Amino acid sequence: MELIPPDIGGESSSPDSPVSPSVSELRLVLQVKEERDEEKKIELERELKRESDRREEMERFREKRENERREMEERHRQKMENCTEAREEAARNLMNISQDLQWDIMIPQTKMEREFTRQMEEKNRQMEEKDRQMEEKNRQMEEKDRQMKEKDREMEEKDRQMKEKDREMEEKDRQMEEKDRQMEEKDRQMKEKDRQMKEKDRQMKEKDRQMKEKDRQMEEKDRDGGVG
After folding, report:
1. Terminal CA-to-CA distance of the chain, rounded, Å?
2. Which residues span the domain enclosing 137?
3. Which of 1, 18, 36, 141 is deepest in the core (most CB within 10 A)?
């Protein structure tokens, strides 16, 4: 249901002018147009309808009072035609009555406007509280996101450290393998040295054997020479 807003304009001081919409009613019309939430919009439209009904009731009340005022003015006009003094008295009475009527019209309207303004302020306060709660929820969500990002960053750092450790371990393994290879090479060289030493020992023994053989041959020659 979309309510047609009343004509926008200021309140007239003329007795014959209709009751103009209040500032609070105009504000409500704007809120109905701008509101996107369907439930809130329906509630605002209901409030606007109630305000419009109150304004129409005030209009009927004003017209009734205006009719009464016109009748009294007519009676006083007739009396003033017969007597100048009576005419002056009637003018004073008319002024007092007009002021009383204006007060009678203004006071209920002012009370309704105040009540409507109070209700709207309460609604605005509730909306502001909802907005504040939403902002707090958003802040908490942002904080959670920040914490999650921080956790991700820490996990990435841990992964990086683990990879670095793995790389260091691989390097250590490579160095150990190199050491093992060097040790094996050393062992091979030592074995070769041992083999060479054994070969030298064998050669020395062979030399010793040859020397002994030579000594034996020389002894035999010396012995044969002595005999001849």
Report:
1. 161
2. 23-143
3. 18
